[in-house]
């Protein structure tokens, strides 16, 4: 028989390093090893009573014996070349009658495989070429990946831990014993890898490491795509297989020039939007049905989710991200989240995810590709530029430039908070709002930031008595809609609820039992519908708009024009007296019609709006501009 060229010696010190979980290269001793004309097979299985090596070809069994330490099994098979084998493991268990019985399993040996990590990708990491621009995808190497290795299904693990002398995969499949699945350190690197040939789908796992200073640590997989339900924090290996049904939606999205499309966003904190009939949080799929029905009825065309990457604290609203690649398990599985996005796409609703906590472009691209997101919110403009530079046109149909015009919205809010008799010239405030228009998709965001941290809701910010508050709020919402910028409204603010956002209390939908709240909801719905119907309000967000002149201290008029030259004239009266002979300077003869007024009775106003068309030969039309109102006119002939 031909002799092997290798030699192998079973070393007691190395065995003790395995049993003591101190080995950085367990493949050096575990698995099958050739030695001249023979082969040795070694395995560490601390819970096994008996172990056999089984020849996969002819099913010959070779009993192993314990050597040097409990649980360390070895066998010398004489006059054999290396061959494919299985491990037959016999464990002692107790049956239902309390009798001891044998439990037998037949498995592939994790230490019979060569490197499962792609060594070319390893060298990209070593050479500092592990970025998206270089074509590197971090999840193609790190974390846990399902892999077919030479016909064997299993999971490949890879982790990078500087200063680590031993790393192990621990989980439900090995009783969380760091000695059982010790990983192999890839030479000349601080990367550790291991292929485990088991079916561990939906199984909890973590990594356990031993550092050079003798300290140990156990942590969840930073690249995990799922986690166990809180308060646990173990990673959960999950196969992301889902049959998407949104091909037509995604194709249509690619045809759009988003800068010329209406973007009206409803911002949602999933946990406090609604609960089920038992007061429990909604699942991803239940939420999808609830939110789709509501935003469609209210004429929003996007939802924006506050961070749902896995997070730990309920009081952080999702901004303390602990697993940037995983949708939080609070509402279901990753495939449940996929089904939610798919359902919303079927209803024509886009999905944007707040990813402010994430600074990794690779992670952002992962979410866009894996979950078919229509946009991500970032507040770092340099990061946005880097993303666009690195990815080029790959995500041209995805909204990534959605920066909030926080300063402009804050100034607009401050103006409306001021008592009517003390409000200054509004043109200065509008100029400051539009001064922030940039190369990014600016969003006039009436966001959670404006109503959190004890600030109270928007209705609470308005001055005056109850009726005046709602009148001013209608002006405020109207201005935010008609001034340039994409639109965003935080949940609950459209119904005029009192009390700000704290992340704990669910929206009080019962306020819709009151007329004022129902009127406001109707107003916002019609305001949204007007925005979607009039291109003048969304096609020219990055172009200057024109002030049409001021006649009174507390009035303002401006125009918005669409790409075909159609003009909408917006006039607002911030005072408490009606302007009964307000001259609207259109600059063009014709017939004009009031197409929207916040003072309409159906919105809870006084009903003093303009009900008749206005005809002008010189371009000036005389209108009624009710107190505390905003109105829109358009040429109809």
TrEMBL record:
Signal peptide: none annotated. Transmembrane segments: none annotated. Keywords: Glycosyltransferase, Transferase. It catalyses: Transfers a segment of a (1->4)-alpha-D-glucan chain to a primary hydroxy group in a similar glucan chain. Belongs to the glycosyl hydrolase 13 family. GlgB subfamily. Catalyzes the formation of the alpha-1,6-glucosidic linkages in glycogen by scission of a 1,4-alpha-linked oligosaccharide from growing alpha-1,4-glucan chains and the subsequent attachment of the oligosaccharide to the alpha-1,6 position. This is 1,4-alpha-glucan branching enzyme. It comes from Coprococcus ammoniilyticus. The lineage of its organism: Bacteria, Bacillati, Bacillota, Clostridia, Lachnospirales.
